[in-house]
Amino acid sequence: MLVTGGAGYIGSHTAKALHRAGYAVVVYDNLLAGHREAVRYGPLVEGDLADRGRLGETLRRFEIGAVVHFAALLAVSESVHDPARYYRNNVIGTLTLLEAMAAAQVPHLVFSSTCAVYGEPEETPIVETHPTRPINAYGETKLAIERALPHYERAYGLHAVVLRYFNAAGADPDGDLGEDHDPEIHLIPRAIQAATGGAPLEIFGDDYPTPDGTCLRDYVHVSDLADAHVLALQALAETGRSATVNLGSGHPSSVREVIATVERVTGRPVPAQLAARRPGDPAVLFAASRLAADGLHWRPRHSTLDEIVRTAWAWHAAHPHGFHGGTV
Ligand code: UFG
Question: Which CATH number applies to 2-169+219-248?
């Protein structure tokens, strides 16, 4: 099993879940955003998606039967300022991987996609058949690959399960892995940083048409996302059927609710100040995850806001400087 981006946040948690499920895991990562210390469940091949030769050689050398593809750039605002980098990495890089897979006759792919493909939702909860109209380059790059996949399936026999994540959050409940982005852009780790002496949290707008005026998001535990990849691979092996599936808890939480939960769990105040809306933030995003439940038999087990924040806090408290800073 090849896990591209397996040194990253969701990738490393998925490598652990796959290893537990009995798969032999090989991680392919250029370590630009990933961490060598997060690769614990199989060998690491250091390589870039642009390196077609190395990809092909890795697929053959390890006799790879399926690929779980995470390696990608993921910051929405960065994608607005530097779309070229996003198209090069996320689109050209992924197409290079798909060509290498087709050449090596690897038939199964699980592809990391995002709720950003929906853009500003017309209706919530969002079902998979909702129109896809991304409002940023990041979402466009993911949708471009989603649209290419059926053509690759017809021509090259490459079957794919596309997983559209909502807000991945939390950390491995055993404390082995956690979130370590540089810079950190996500709400929960930023709120934890603010609670532990970092810069005050900026609340990006409180005049949204929501109950408390702040944005509603669907936070889903990273270990639940990881489990869904195992189920997607099993479904591919059993049926060979391609599918596109939302992964969310189905419960919307506001920015203020997240802050209150971080304060309760850490026992510390989260210094926060009101800031302007962040461009490109929809007011409300949450998933209908019926397809994941019915089609993949996926049941989120850790995705209450309380457990998400508790595991994120435990990881941060044990690794205040992430993977590289050692433990305290
Ligand atoms: N937020 C703040 N302050 C911060 C950080 C975030 O108020 O310092 C707010 C945001 O405005 C948003 C919510 O907290 O309402 C969550 O923000 P995140 O940055 O944690 O996550 P996003 O919802 O922006 O991003 C997620 C995924 C992306 C995906 C995007 C789709 O991480 O991959 O949803 O909109 F593209």
Answer: 3.40.50.720
